[in-house]
Every structure is written in structure tokens, then in C-alpha cells.
Design goal:
By secondary structure, the chain is of the alpha+beta class. It has four helices and five strands, in the order E-H-E-E-H-E-E-H-H. The strands form two sheets. Strands 1-3-2 form a three-stranded antiparallel beta sheet, with no helix packed on it. Strand 4 and strand 5 form a beta hairpin.
């Protein structure tokens, strides 16, 4: 197992988002996790990973540094917890999955809709978050 492998299935699968948050796009390969679904979250442009029938698809990011992990952990919504998943190709990856009992929509999240309707504003939001985060880190 690569302890630095992160399975991403939502906004973090977009290179522009990763670059905005950590200044680079880590090595990544297509990956999938059986028994999970990428659910839309109420009033949020990003999804949540929840147990379900079918297979969630995304990418496995490798080679994240400890500092990049800290940034991504700080960035992720409190609705998530980090969980180790078995991937369909025999690899393992950590993923931000919804906490048990989180409210999700009955329909799946669409990467295509996110890209068409939300990506530019989301990148701006990520950049603003990063500026606040870095200011807070410097003040600590």
C-alpha cells in the first residue's frame, strides 16, 4: 500500500482545483471503488462518497507530501472523514467519505455539470480559501 495515495472522485479530480490548492497536480491514475457512489450534496457544488451499489470512479493521487496532506485535510468539509478504501484493481487509497448520517441527495453528482456550471467560481473560492489558510498558518 502507498500511504500517500488519495482516491479523489469530486472537485479534487480537476487539475485546476489541485493546482490552486497545492501548486501542482500530483501523479494520478484512473481508479474506481466498488460499493460506493458519488452522491450530490444539498446546496453544495461538490459531492460526497457514500456506500451504495455500483462503482465510484475517479483518480488515485500518489506522491502527496505531508504538507499537501495537511492542506487538503484543512480544506475538506467537516462532513467528511478519511477512510481507507479497497479499489477495484487491487490497490488501496484513502478517500474523504461522508460521515455516517450525512444528508445526501438521491441522485449522483455529475463531474460534467460541475465543470460546466461551477468550476470557475469554485476555483476562485479555493484561491480565497488558500489565502485565508496561509494567513492563519503564518499567524499561528
Amino acid at each position: 500500500m502507498d500511504p500517500e495515495a488519495l482516491f479523489v472522485y469530486g472537485s479534487l479530480q480537476f487539475p485546476e482545483v489541485l493546482f490552486t490548492l497545492i501548486d501542482r497536480v500530483p501523479d494520478h491514475d484512473p481508479a474506481a471503488a466498488h460499493g460506493w457512489r458519488v452522491a450530490a450534496l444539498p446546496e453544495r457544488p461538490y459531492p460526497g462518497l457514500v456506500p451504495g451499489t455500483g462503482t465510484a470512479t475517479g483518480y488515485l493521487l500518489t506522491g502527496l507530501t505531508p504538507e499537501e496532506w495537511r492542506v487538503l485535510d484543512a480544506f475538506e468539509d467537516p462532513v467528511y472523514e478519511l477512510k481507507r478504501l479497497d479499489l477495484t484493481d487491487g490497490r488501496h487509497g484513502w478517500a474523504y467519505v461522508c460521515n455516517p448520517g450525512a444528508t445526501v441527495e438521491p441522485h449522483d453528482w455529475s463531474a460534467e455539470d460541475f465543470q460546466a456550471q461551477h468550476l470557475p467560481a469554485y476555483i476562485d473560492r479555493c484561491a480565497a480559501w488558500r489565502r485565508r489558510h496561509e494567513t492563519n498558518q503564518q499567524a499561528s
